Structure of Glycine/betaine ABC transporter ATP-binding protein:
Amino acid sequence: MSTTAAPVFSVQGLWKVFGPKADRVPEDPELTGLEPAELRTRTGCTAAVRDVSFDVRKGEVFVVMGLSGSGKSTLVRCLTRLIEPTAGTIAIDGEDVRAMDRARLRELRRHRAAMVFQHFGLLPHRTVLDNVAYGLEIQGVRKTERRERAASVVAKVGLEGMEKRRPSQLSGGQRQRVGLARALAVDPEVLLFDEPFSALDPLIRRDMQDEVVRLHREEGRTMVFITHDLSEALKLGDRIALMRDGRVVQLGTPEEIVGSPADDYVREFVRDVPREQVMTVRTAMKPGGCGAADHPDALTPDAVVADAIRTVARNGRPACVVENGRCLGVVDHERLLGVVAGTEQLREAA
Ligand SMILES: Nc1ncnc2c1ncn2[C@@H]1O[C@H](COP(=O)(O)OP(=O)(O)O)[C@@H](O)[C@H]1O
Ligand SMILES: [Mg+2]
């Protein structure tokens, strides 16, 4: 993942207010300062997204997480103007989304930013293959080509052999794979997921999460993934925007959110996270090289603390953290257990 490339989406000061004379709300400092309930009684308006800014970097999985009603769906729908923003700017690859005309918007939604929904929206009378090819059909791709492309995507999401089935002959997990394949078939620059796995059984859900991780690893496709599930967010996200009442209360890597919560709300949210599964040895290590020429049993900086605990316990001695042949620091059992307990100073001076 590159962090220097230009962002795919760039969002600045985004507002979405539902209700009468919604436009006045973002402009009026007296109204923007109100709590959601008070804004509602005073004006009849709901501010679903409140002054939100972020970039989605090329190749990352950007997760938007928050409880039900926190504004996640509204936010992601604003990105392609399925919902019209009230204020703020949105750019995709530098192009102003709010200035797009209808044709350009259609092109944006069909080719550049494909959406995968919770309710798969499959066409019941069509086969799996034809459902997957549907997006290509809308694009005007010729029949033989779209069937070829659809077949290869069907295989990619693990549905080989099921091409001729109808949606009613599939399990929930398989249907979601069809939905995913349909979005992938148009080869979009960015995939937008709105809680696609929330309705699935836990085991199937885990399969689908693994599928997303695999697709991301293999293709490096940019994804915006919405979920209310913290463990899903931590598993999938390169970075997570945590929403509360329409605002982003913290934006950071899973490790930053778990290790350095921005406020009490976030701290409470992540309280039960198994820290050893999220925190890395880069954070846990005592910085500074060990001086040795070679490093048996070296850990990579991105190894999680749980793995490091196993290594240190097995060897009965501290382990070096090595990147490109260079020792960055050392972890011992005290530092590792300190991270688990949440007592380790996170940003100790090197
Ligand atoms: N069309 C609408 N009209 C009025 N209020 C809406 C509309 N859509 C969503 N809301 C309100 O906006 C807030 C955020 O909703 P939503 O974006 O669906 O949250 P989430 O996806 O996080 O559950 C909620 O208070 C919801 O009731
Ligand atoms: Mg939602």
Remarks:
- Residues 18, 46, 48, 66, 68-74 surround adenosine-5'-diphosphate (ligand 1) (CB under 6 Å).
- Residues 345-350 have pLDDT under 50 and may be disordered.
- The longest helix spans residues 202-219.
- The two ends are 26 Å apart (CA to CA).
